[in-house]
Amino acid sequence: MSEFAPATYVQLTQALVAHELVHSYGTSEREAAELLGLVPSAVSQYLSGKRLRPQLAAIGARDEPRRIARGIAQQLLAVDHPQEYSPGLVLEGARELASAGASRRSPMPPLPAPAPEPADREVVAGLGRRATLEHAAVADCMRLAQKARDELTRAIFRQIASDSLRHAEIVASLASYLDRGLTDTVATGVTRSDIERLIRKEKVAEAETVPGLTRRLGGVMGLLWESMASDERKHETLLEHLLAGGLLPSEGPTRAPARRSARRHRG
Predict the structure, then answer these.
(1) pLDDT of residue 262
(2) Which of 63, 95, 142, 154 is 20 to 30 A removed from 85 (C-alpha atoms)?
(3) Angle at the Cα of 144 (from 8 to 148), degrees rounded to 5?
(4) pLDDT averaged over 10-residue windows placed end to end, the chain, 267 residues
(5) Residue 174 within a domain
(6) Is residue 185 within a helix (H) or strand (E), and if so which, with residue range?
């Protein structure tokens, strides 16, 4: 009998795979995040116990959960473009984990307890509900992808599943920052020249596209092509906004690196 909700098993699988990647295979937290298609802060929170600490302790050190996680880690390390495979692998691993059942007999190695931080609990709780719904959408889309009988239809539902999984991780990371009282941050580790170079490459790729292809493709083919065009427009907007106001003071408009909410400073 399953101990947790289906969405929780997805997150537990991510956490266990991240643990295997970092501690068994020697990847950095950032590399593990890239392999799983997660933001680095999510992997950091999984490994530090900031997220899912009670659930990970309940699973314990049984061989079966770690065998499942180790298998996924090995597959992600072995394939090209692992981000394309990680949603399906994680979902299948979550199903195996739920089927195997969770044991409360042996706790995992102790994790450092996170320091309590003030937060807008109502907002954070709302973000938690959004993350749960996004994970549910992942499961629904992967089921539909398996049900579809042609490659292009499967591609649509896998894309939505991948987007929903990424949205869930973004929501969880936003909640983590809010939980620390942060409401405004800037990008770190990248420069204006890095972003401008990426924008140029995106424009070159767009220029090499066959003109009028959207009008020449119909049905599912047209939908997939339009989804790519929509992604490119989103990328352009994100990069332009990052240049305009999302960099450190030395790389962009002068501003504080991060602002904490006014609530934090009240007596």
Answers:
(1) 41
(2) 63
(3) 150
(4) 67 88 86 88 85 73 78 82 82 81 44 47 79 82 87 89 83 78 76 88 80 82 87 88 77 45 40
(5) no
(6) strand 182-185
Q: Is residue 96 part of a domain?
A: yes
What is the distance of C-alpha 3 from the center of its chain?
A: 23
pLDDT at 60: 59
122: CB partners within 8 A, 6+ apart:
none
Q: How many domains does the chain have?
A: 2
Residue ending a domain, among 65, 100, 135, is 100
Instruction: Give domain status of residue 13, yes or no.
Output: yes
Q: Cα 26 from chain centroid?
A: 20
At residue 168, the pLDDT reads: 82
The partner residues of 185 in beta bridges, in order of sequence, read 258
The one-letter amino acid at 195: I
Token look-up 């309590």 returns 116
Residue 20 included in any domain: yes
Domain that holds residue 25: 6-100
How high is the pLDDT of residue 106? 40
Helix then strand then coil, % of the chain, to nearest 5: 70, 5, 30
pTM more than 0.70 = no
What tokens does 150 get? Answer: 């042609």
Q: At which residue do the structure tokens 């199903």 appear?
A: 95
What does the alpha-carbon distance between residue 33 and residue 177 come to, in Å, rounded to a whole number? 18
Looking at 78, 100, 122, which one is the last position of a domain? 100
